[in-house]
Design brief:
A two-stranded antiparallel ribbon has the order 1-2. By secondary structure, it is mainly alpha-helical. The protein is built from 14 helices and two strands; from the N terminus they run H-H-H-H-H-H-E-H-H-H-H-E-H-H-H-H.
């Protein structure tokens, strides 16, 4: 019910926003979907991947190549971008999940950087460091308001799917593997197959976010696959709180709005980002959403006259 209220509020907000506000909120929804997809691996399955940018970039470049080289309309490219990202995630996950902990993290980073290098240097196909530009969607989705609703629909479908997944037997199995893989496998849960499926689903949603981001920016560049794009998902998740379902989306919106505001005041955004993360990790390890949830719980107890714990 709370998710439906949130989606309804965001839908009603659209017509009241300016052109700039629509683009900013569209980007926040896309980054939120990307961070939520990352958290499926990170919080649910206990996997820290530094290669999330690979799937974001594959989705973006699939959309861009189909639009610019094959002349496809924008909308039919989205399922193909999903499929391409899913295949990339299946291949990378199949090889990476044979390792654990830091070795898994470094291998995912290596695969993402490998794809980045290919895209960066393959001028004839990807445009190299010049990227692919002039990707404005044709028709209604070239306008800000319809594109905002498309981003909201993708966000709503992705978040609803993740919410169902979290409460499903598959979600419980993932958390069991995260907490104690040996015990989970001893009771019959297939560790590798469950983790691989979570990795692929996370890659699919990241690819959808990448395709939407490319259309929003009307261009794609190799930086979509660079490790800093993976770091954005991690930072947004830490900032919002990985333990709260919508925490990564809250963190993504806060990350984006803070970046825009700080960059309008000063050129030292990385310095302020470092300070914000330092304060978050030291004093608010549950993230912004975790703090908000605790405050709301206390207010509810005060209102009901219950003793505070």
């Amino acid at each position: 019910m709370r998710l439906l209220l949130l989606f309804a509020f965001l839908a009603a907000l659209g017509p009241a926003l300016s052109e700039y506000g629509l683009k900013l909120l569209s980007e926040a929804l896309i980054l939120g979907l990307y961070a939520m997809a990352f958290n499926l691996q990170f919080h649910q399955a206990g996997l820290l991947s530094f290669g999330q940018a690979a799937f974001f970039g594959v989705g973006a470049y699939t959309m861009a190549l189909l639009v610019s080289r094959a002349g496809w309309p924008f909308l039919p490219t989205l399922p193909v971008a999903l499929l391409a990202s899913g295949l990339a995630a299946a291949a990378i996950g199949f090889l990476s999940l044979r390792l654990t902990r830091i070795y898994f993290t470094m291998l995912t980073l290596a695969f993402a950087q490998l794809l980045y290098a290919v895209v960066h240097k393959w001028y004839a196909f990807t445009g190299g460091d010049n990227g692919i530009t002039d990707l404005r969607p044709q028709g209604a989705f070239g306008e800000s308001l319809p594109f905002y609703y498309l981003s909201l629909a993708a966000f709503a479908l992705g978040v609803s799917f993740l919410a169902l997944l979290q409460r499903s037997p598959f979600g419980y199995a993932l958390r069991g593997l995260r907490d104690n893989r040996a015990r989970a496998e001893a009771v019959g849960i297939g560790g590798f197959s469950h983790l691989l499926l979570a990795f692929v689903l996370s890659g699919l949603l990241s690819g959808l976010a990448g395709a939407l981001q490319g259309a929003l920016q009307r261009s794609v560049f190799p930086e979509y696959l660079f490790w800093t794009r993976s770091a954005e998902a991690i930072l947004a998740t830490i900032l919002g709180g990985s333990g709260v379902f919508l925490g990564p989306a809250v963190g993504a919106a806060a990350f984006l709005f803070l970046r825009v505001w700080v960059q309008a005041q000063t050129e030292y955004w990385p310095f302020f980002l470092g300070v914000i993360l330092l304060l978050t990790v030291l004093f608010f390890p549950s993230g912004l959403a975790g703090v908000g949830e605790r405050v709301a719980r206390r207010l509810w107890r005060v209102r009901r006259g219950a003793p505070q714990g």
